[in-house]
């Protein structure tokens, strides 16, 4: 990782400039799909705007059906324009930058083929050679798999057979694979084994888009670039940690995928565990990819494995029922299009985990994620242990305000620290107050999809923000006992919660039984 330091205490500044990526051809499998249009191409456009793409850059857009390249470029431009005008992607203050788009558009070619057929890859080989010659991309290629997960193994094998994965004369061949990486421990292991027969680990970029979020990367900076946090970042000082990934969206039009997947598989072994491991990891020896990934992996390895009784006691699965969200009536999950009327798929999961190591022994980590909750919020709350009460025993104070450090990851990025202060007046009375830091007050942020950093990092060969094989498997290893029990034991309840609420009551009980409570979502 390239680390620069700029003092921003007095000034509001734009991003520090990075170096231009090396020459490269980006081959997108599934170029006609939603991911390419909504996230990947806007990210490429942003990289072009930031002048981070090489002059010798080209895109081969691979899709099932042939399409005139002009029509295809127009289709992608539509996606960029709606991204630029979408306030959810950031402040919509920037106009569409036609020049930045033209830089990209003029380098796109369209290639049609059936991804299950080997002749597609033989033809692709020829097309890639021509592209290398035309755009002087020097033989470097990134293959981006924006396709259904069932095709991951096949595509990688075909790349191998066609000689497309071979790195020669100093050039690189890299493959980006986005989640879902497997559907359980066995399938994740099998997929790793399959692709590792063709590619070396250094060629595989397993993407978790949470790691592209600036504020997620900032967890490490906050912890390791400031002297005040690490000395108290342990079981001596921390009472518990809460990680919340709450969404207001429901299953939308993804029921076919979601019915088979559920909140646990969809969010926990990947996104939520990225947050967990960044919060709990030991300081790495350096920001080298393997140093960081090794420390993150060690956290997941140290998570206390749950037996059946612990799964029953320490996990909650829920599903949204009808309710009111944003003032409007919202239907139940079971009434959504393509969802079975008696579906038992969970749209919410909460759990208590422990990390069996020296730093964290005895500190509960409470995790929760769900759809159709009252508010969209992703945060990590570190609650510190109470100060001794003795001094206040003869005062009207009956409870001390807990110290909570909250890292707000989205949508309002920043951090806040809660502590107790004296309420002015003759008597000793305490009130909880907060110091707040908002990213937007210090940094000029550009609208981004979060994919910019990840695509750029792949092009420059930095794997720090990508998952290693062992990291993916360790995540599945932690959730596998939960998947097993939920599947095999029909008595495990599916707790209903109203859309627009804070999740099921059973999740509150998870904390109440030890005298704790969740931070409010609404
Ligand atoms: C995806 C999940 O990986 O992450 C979705 O499949 C979820 O169900 C999404 O909504 C959340 O990502 P973000 O970036 O919107 O917080």
Shape: globular
What bound compounds does this protein have? 6-O-phosphono-beta-D-glucopyranose
Residue runs with pLDDT of under 50 for 5 or more positions: none
Biggest sheet, strands in spatial order? Answer: 16-15-14-13-7-12-11-8-17
- β-strand number: 17
The CATH H-level superfamily of the largest domain is Dihydrodipicolinate Reductase, domain 2
CATH architecture of the largest domain: 2-Layer Sandwich
Global mean pLDDT: 93
Q: Terminal Cα separation, in Å? A: 37 Å
At the first level of CATH, the class of the largest domain is: Alpha Beta
Number of domains: 2
The largest sheet, given as strand count, sense and whether it forms a barrel, is: 9 strands, mixed
Kindly name the structural category: alpha/beta
Strand composition percent? 15-25%
Please explain how this structure is put together.
With 522 residues, this protein is α/β, with parallel strands linked by helices. 34% of the residues lie in helices and 20% in strands. The structure holds 6-O-phosphono-beta-D-glucopyranose (BG6). The site of 6-O-phosphono-beta-D-glucopyranose has 5 residues, from loops.
């Amino acid at each position: 990782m390239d680390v620069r330091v700029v003092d921003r205490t007095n000034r509001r500044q734009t991003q520090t400039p990075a170096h231009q990526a090396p020459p490269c051809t980006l081959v997108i499998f599934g170029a006609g799909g939603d991911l390419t249009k909504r996230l990947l191409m806007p990210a490429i456009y942003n990289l072009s705007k930031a002048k981070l793409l090489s002059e010798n850059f080209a895109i081969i857009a691979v899709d099932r059906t042939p399409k005139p390249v002009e029509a295809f470029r127009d289709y992608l431009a539509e996606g960029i324009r709606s991204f630029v005008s979408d306030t959810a992607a950031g402040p919509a203050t920037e106009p569409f930058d036609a020049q930045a788009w033209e830089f990209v558009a003029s380098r796109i070619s369209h290639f049609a083929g059936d991804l299950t057929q080997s002749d597609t890859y033989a033809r692709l080989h020829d097309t890639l050679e021509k592209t290398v010659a035309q755009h002087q991309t020097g033989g470097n290629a990134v293959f981006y798999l924006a396709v259904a997960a069932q095709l991951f193994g096949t595509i990688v094998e075909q790349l191998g057979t066609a000689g497309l994965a071979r790195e020669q004369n100093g050039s690189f061949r890299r493959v980006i694979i986005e989640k879902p990486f497997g559907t359980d421990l066995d399938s994740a292991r099998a997929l790793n084994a399959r692709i590792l027969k063709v590619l070396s680990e250094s060629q595989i970029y397993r993407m978790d888009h949470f790691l592209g979020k600036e504020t997620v990367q900032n967890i490490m900076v906050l912890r390791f670039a400031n002297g005040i946090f690490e000395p108290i970042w342990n079981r001596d000082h921390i009472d518990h940690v809460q990680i919340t990934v709450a969404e207001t969206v429901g299953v939308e039009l993804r029921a076919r995928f979601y019915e088979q997947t559920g909140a646990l598989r969809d969010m926990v072994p990947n996104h939520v565990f990225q947050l967990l491991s960044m919060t709990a990891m030991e300081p790495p020896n350096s920001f080298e990819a393997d140093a960081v990934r090794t420390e993150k992996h060690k956290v997941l390895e140290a998570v206390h494995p749950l037996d059946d009784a612990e799964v029953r006691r320490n996990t909650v699965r829920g599903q949204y029922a009808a309710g009111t969200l944003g003032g409007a009536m919202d239907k139940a999950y079971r009434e959504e299009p393509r969802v079975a009327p008696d579906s038992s798929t969970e749209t919410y999961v909460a759990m208590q985990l422990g990390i069996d190591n020296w730093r964290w022994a005895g500190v509960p980590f409470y995790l929760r994620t769900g759809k159709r909750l009252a508010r969209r919020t992703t945060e990590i709350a570190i609650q510190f242990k109470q100060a001794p009460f003795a001094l206040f025993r003869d005062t009207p104070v009956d409870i001390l305000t807990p110290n909570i450090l909250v890292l707000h990851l989205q949508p309002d990025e920043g951090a806040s620290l809660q502590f107790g202060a004296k309420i002015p007046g003759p008597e000793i009375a305490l009130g909880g107050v907060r110091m707040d830091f908002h990213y937007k007050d210090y940094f000029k942020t550009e609208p981004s999809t979060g994919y910019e950093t990840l695509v750029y990092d792949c092009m420059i060969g930095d794997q720090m923000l990508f998952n290693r094989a062992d990291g993916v498997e360790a995540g599945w290893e932690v959730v596998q006992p939960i998947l097993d029990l939920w599947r095999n034991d029909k008595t495990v309840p599916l707790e209903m919660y109203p859309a627009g609420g804070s999740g099921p009551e059973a999740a509150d009980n998870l904390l109440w039984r030890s005298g704790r409570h969740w931070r409010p979502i609404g």
